[in-house]
Design a protein that fits this description.
Layout lengths: L10 E6 L1 H4 L8 H16 L3 E6 L2 H9 L8 H24 L5 E6 L1 H5 L1 H16 L3 E6 L13 H11 L4 E6 L26 H4 L14 H13 L4 E5 L5 H6 L6 E3 L8 H9 L5 E4 L1 H8 L10 E5 L7 E5 L5 E6 L4 H7 L7 H5 L13 E3 L5
Parallel strand pairs: 1-2, 1-5, 2-4, 3-4, 5-6, 8-10
Antiparallel strand pairs: 6-7, 8-9, 10-11, 11-12
Helix pairs in contact: 2-4, 3-4, 7-9
């Protein structure tokens, strides 16, 4: 997809960060939220379906509770989020109501998306909300967050929501115009990248250092989130959130922000879930022949191509497939536990039963449960 084709996008995920809608020392920017509500309501009236992923609960709570700086303690952050989330959704609801648009609050944790049953329930609920003409307002459930269930930031959450919601476009609204070659606040030679079609280590270093005093992400977190989206077939844009009518400009194909076209064909829902939502429980290191079979030939992973196993996992768990030189090329659901794979690695499939006394499958990972990561094709 090209910029000129973005007007065809029907379902759009818009992520807005705390730095865009909240003041540096807490509290919300009513005017920015009002303008955003107007734009999203207009898109909805045009027949588009809009999903909003919004940060700001902690910042809103900070303002109400009188904190000048973002708390470092997780329990205090959770308290700020509990107070602020109610204020955040009330503020959005009030501004959307001016344009006759209804909204719904959806709070998620990583567990909600990693458990297949809960993932499907969340997905079905999201689709039902959209069918009713309501705009879902999604945030991480900060009131119960701990390190084990955190998405890490709402950039990552927005990419996961775009995949779960089968979006046609992901827009990340930031405090900066887009991705620059270097920090424009420090270098007079920095220039905005209008389009990025490939990713590299060098690209990930083209970031603006630091984060907002009230935010948790940065440019690198946005790039990592966008890599997931475009790899699954969803185009993405980073643009400045206080740019007037920014969404209208984007959908008209104007050169606003940085555009990231999708890579390859769109993955079907279950493959997106396996490849980009699940957190790997371990690693399977494979030889060059197996790597070629997975990436070039679309084959399953057989025990013959496995060199070693790292971590402890059970049958059905998600794992990373890593080459001998340390590159992750695929993810999949294993048919054997880590202990079983250690016993059958290097063997032909016909030798599995002799080694274990039984066999579940001739493959360590069947190709139907395996996703090749596009950045390594």
């Amino acid at each position: 997809m090209r910029r000129e084709d973005l007007h065809k996008c029907r379902r759009i995920v818009v992520k807005v960060g705390s730095g865009v809608i909240a003041h540096p020392h807490g509290g919300l920017k009513e005017k920015v939220i009002s303008n955003l509500a107007l734009e999203l309501a207009e898109l909805q009236a045009q027949g588009k379906e809009v999903i909003l992923v919004s940060s700001g609960a902690v910042a809103a709570g900070m303002g109400i509770l009188g904190f000048r700086d973002r708390p470092s303690s997780i329990p205090v952050k959770q308290a700020c989020a509990a107070v602020g989330q109610a204020h955040l959704i009330w503020t959005y609801e009030r501004h959307f109501e001016r344009w006759g648009q209804r909204v719904a609050q959806v709070l998620l944790t990583r567990d909600d998306l990693e458990d297949r049953r809960r993932y499907l329930n969340a997905r079905n609920t999201l689709f039902s909300i959209l069918r009713l003409g309501v705009i879902p307002l999604i945030n991480e459930n900060d009131t119960v967050m701990v390190e084990e269930i955190k998405f890490g930031d709402n950039d990552n959450l927005s990419a996961l929501v775009a995949m779960m919601g089968e979006a046609d476009l992901l827009v990340i609204l930031s405090t900066v115009e887009g991705l620059y070659t270097s920090d424009p606040n420090r270098s007079g030679n920095a220039f905005l990248l209008s389009e990025v079609s490939t990713f590299s280590d060098e690209l990930e270093r083209c970031q603006i250092e630091g984060v907002s005093p009230i935010g948790t992400g940065g440019m690198l977190s946005k790039i990592k989130a966008i890599k997931k989206a475009v790899a699954s077939g969803i185009p993405a844009i980073i643009a400045q959130g206080d740019n007037q009518r920014v969404l209208r400009k984007i959908l008209k194909g104007e050169k606003v922000g940085t555009f990231f076209p999708p890579r390859g064909e769109r993955l079907e829902g279950r493959k997106r879930w396996i490849g980009y939502t699940l957190h790997p429980m371990g690693v399977v290191v494979i030889d060059n022949g197996a790597a070629r079979a997975l990436t070039k030939e679309g084959r399953s992973l057989l025990p013959k191509g496995v060199l070693r196993v790292e971590g402890a996992f059970e049958m059905g768990d998600p794992v990373s497939c890593i080459t001998q030189d340390g590159k992750e090329i695929a993810r999949g659901l294993v048919n054997y536990s880590s202990q079983e794979i250690e016993r059958i690695k290097g063997l032909h499939s016909s030798e599995i039963e002799g080694a274990l006394g039984y066999h579940h499958s001739p493959e360590v990972i069947h190709r139907d449960n395996l996703v090749v990561l596009h950045e390594h094709l």
